[in-house]
């Protein structure tokens, strides 16, 4: 994964969270090369607004596709795989945050049936993983999109 997608500290953190039962890292592979990933956050949301209005709802975070493989359906397949897994585990909804400056992602999610919730943008925390292992937390405003499963 790291060889093709980079972000070694990020993946180490997510695999640790997965081992603790807080989520699941899904990775798209083509010819033995990681070409995309998404993390399914199963722990309680960090944002108080999400915990209050969407208690227990899983979150899709950090959907990414390698730049040389974008616009080929990989992101869609990752979202579908995450949704199928959540549905099989009994989840009825899934949510995600997308930056207002990311219209391509917004279009993808809307095409997949996600709708913006009526409570406005939410301040989220974007964690920047530095090569030396430091984690820098940055505030990021996001639109919250929700989709009913099933």
From TrEMBL:
InterPro entries for this protein: Acyl_CoA_acyltransferase, Bact_Acetyltransf, GNAT_dom
N-acetyltransferase domain location: 1-134
Origin superkingdom: Bacteria
Keyword Acyltransferase carried by entry: yes
Keywords: Acyltransferase, Transferase
GO function terms (MF aspect): acyltransferase activity, transferring groups other than amino-acyl groups
PROSITE patterns in alphabetical order: GNAT (PS51186)
Pfam family, one: Acetyltransf_1
Name of the protein this chain belongs to: N-acetyltransferase
Organism: Nonomuraea aridisoli
């Amino acid at each position: 994964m790291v060889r093709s997608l980079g972000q070694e500290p990020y993946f180490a953190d997510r695999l640790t969270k997965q081992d603790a039962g807080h989520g699941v890292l899904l990775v798209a592979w083509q010819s033995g090369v990681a070409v995309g990933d998404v993390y399914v956050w199963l722990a309680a949301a960090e944002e108080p607004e999400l915990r209050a209005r969407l208690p227990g709802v899983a979150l899709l975070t950090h959907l990414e596709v390698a730049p040389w493989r974008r616009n080929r359906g990989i992101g869609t397949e990752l979202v579908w795989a995450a949704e199928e897994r959540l549905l099989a585990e009994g989840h009825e909804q899934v949510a995600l945050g997308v930056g207002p400056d990311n219209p391509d992602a917004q279009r993808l999610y809307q095409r997949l049936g996600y709708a913006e919730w009526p409570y406005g943008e939410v301040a989220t925390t974007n964690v920047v993983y530095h090569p030396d292992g430091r984690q820098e937390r940055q505030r990021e405003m996001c639109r919250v999109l929700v989709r009913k499963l099933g």
